[in-house]
Amino acid sequence: PHAPWRVPADFWDLYTTEEIAMPQHRLPPENMPGIAWMQNGFYRAADPTQIILPQITSPIDELDTKTMRHAYYAAVSWLDHNLGTVLDSLEAEGLKDNTVVLLHGDHGWQLGEHDSWHKFTNFELGTRVPLIMRAPFIKSSVGKKAEIFAELIDMYPTLSELAGTPAPSDHIDGISLAPVFADPTIVTLPSADIATANKTYAYSQYPHNSDHNCPWFRGGECFQAPTGADTTPHGRALLAQLERQAKVPPPAGNKTSYMGFSVRDKDFRYTAWLPWLDKSQEPDWTAEPFRELYD
């Protein structure tokens, strides 16, 4: 559900603010490069002139955090109710058994985890989306949960194949996941030889243009370098690059944009942040990237 989360009272009353769980990790990951974080908050509903805004070293207070999570939960419950209304209508019209249904978000959502709110990051919760598909005429898929990676670029070719329409004739990057409906246990598509096509990896990217005056974060504070940066080739190269950049600051009012390239396999998420060259619309591949690796 998109903010603002305005819902009927019946759905708000399904939850109690005081009983809402707090995020498990309220501060950013240790040794996170500041460029990976995004500052986002909320207007206070009772007074839209007030903005609830986290800082990279201090999260939103507990009451506001629980209230926002309460509102989101209520909005999800209302969405679930409305989805049920649509599915009931399909059944009433006699279309339930021959209609493909697809439900997905267009991005992930963060509710205070790692001091992050909204989308706009390359973290797991910012890139991972809900995805539910129903093709009731393929009996092997009914009620099953699949573990294979899926990307939203796969939805068009998947729907096309499931619906029996001609395959897309233009160039698209996605691949049909229809074989998963025949066998929901498969975790790769062996006919494809490209990682994002055989579904051993999932890829995403998102840009940022500020480190929020916090080059690296750890232990609730900001630092100019990550732990042990001078002990690895990558760390030494990155420190040397930052030293060179400090001697030649960008023109006044000009910010350096970075593109975050993120790839996920079944065990890890790796993200690299590279300077973005606006003129050529490509990253500076010669630069030493800011790196993140999470399990």
Describe this structure in words.
This protein is of the alpha+beta class. The protein contains seven helices and 14 strands. Strands 8, 11, 12, 13 and 14 form a five-stranded antiparallel sheet that branches.
Q: State the separation between the terminal residues, measured CA to CA.
A: 28 Å
| Helix/strand structural class | alpha+beta
What proportion of the residues form beta strands (DSSP E)? 15-25%
In which range does the helix fraction lie?
10-25%
User: Largest sheet, if any?
Assistant: 5 strands, antiparallel
- Gyration radius over CA: 22 Å
Extract low-pLDDT stretches.
Answer: none
Shape: globular
Number of strands: 14
Give the averaged pLDDT, no decimals: 91
Query: From the structure provided, what is the oligomeric state, counting identical versus distinct chains?
Result: single chain
> H/E order of the elements?
HEEEHEEEHEHHHEEEHEEEE
Number of helices: 7
Give a nutshell description of this structure.
The chain is 24% helix and 20% strand. The protein has 295 residues and is an alpha+beta fold.
List keywords for this structure.
295 residues, alpha+beta, 5-stranded antiparallel sheet
